Amino acid sequence: MTTPAIHAPFLAIPQVLPTTNLPTKISFPPLTINAPPKTDLWRKPPHIDVGNVPAIFLPEPIDLNKFRSANVTVSGEWNTLYDQGGIVLYILGDDLKKWVKTGIEFVFGKPFVGTVATASASDWSLVPLPESAGGKVTIHVERETKGDKRLQSLWVYVVGENGERHAIREVAWVFGPDVIDYEGATAGGRTMLVGVYGARPTVPEGEGKENEELTVKLEGFEVTLFDD
In a 10 Å sphere around its CB, with 0-12 CB exposed, 13-18 middle and 19+ buried, how is residue 149 labelled? Predict the structure, then answer.
């Protein structure tokens, strides 16, 4: 099923009640995001807290506890330091907004698979991308489960050409307060925006390129929710 998306910069996210009428599987047609220079999603205290990236989200926030998984294939003409694009999960309802982004990031002169998880500050991990990949990768993120029980971790996977998933990152705090048996859990009420994004934090070098945008291509973007 295809559902319309909304476009919004992170600084303009509305604080609204979660939607309750989305299907359990939401699929999107191929998408393109154009990211101008000086757009980024990064928090490094005490002075840096940037969130002005262009993004495409599900039509409305969802209850955090309903998120199951998302995947997308991301590609682009990565050529400027920190060029990036992929999946972004933005957690609302806390005093300090939290988010996870994962996809391609251009550093050290080539594209890597980069993942950033942000609570009070951003951390960052990189996984090499084979040259044969041509700057393209399929990313899958999924909430950890054990039988019928939903656990607190979000896992990030790279999907190979044969469909096999390779785990590259565990973010252990994403769903913590929503697990019933989680010690110290608080009341619910948190929501999540699920989407894809692109960013060009650095201004490209070269005469006449200071306004050159990064074009991020996103294919097969699909989100699944728990059926309850």
Answer: exposed
Q: Tell whether the torsion through CA atoms of 63, 51, 43 and 222 is positive or negative.
A: positive
Six-digit token pair at 72? 């997308």
Per-residue pLDDT tens digits of the chain, which is 228 residues long = 444 444 444 444 443 445 557 899 999 999 999 999 999 999 999 999 999 999 999 988 999 999 999 999 999 999 999 999 999 999 987 667 899 999 999 999 999 999 999 999 999 999 999 999 999 999 999 999 999 999 999 999 999 988 999 999 999 999 987 554 444 444 457 899 999 999 999 999 999 899 999 999 999 999 999 998
Give the separation between CA 150 and CA 180, rounded to whole angstroms: 9
The third-level CATH classification (topology) of the domain covering 6-225 is Jelly Rolls (2.60.120)
Single out the residue of 80, 78, 147, 143 nearest to residue 113, CA to CA.
78
The residue assigned the tokens 């609570």 is 119
Closest CA relative to residue 34, chosen from 91, 107, 85: 85
Which sequence spans correspond to the domains of the chain? 6-225
Does residue 88 contact residue 106 with C-beta atoms inside 8 Å?
no
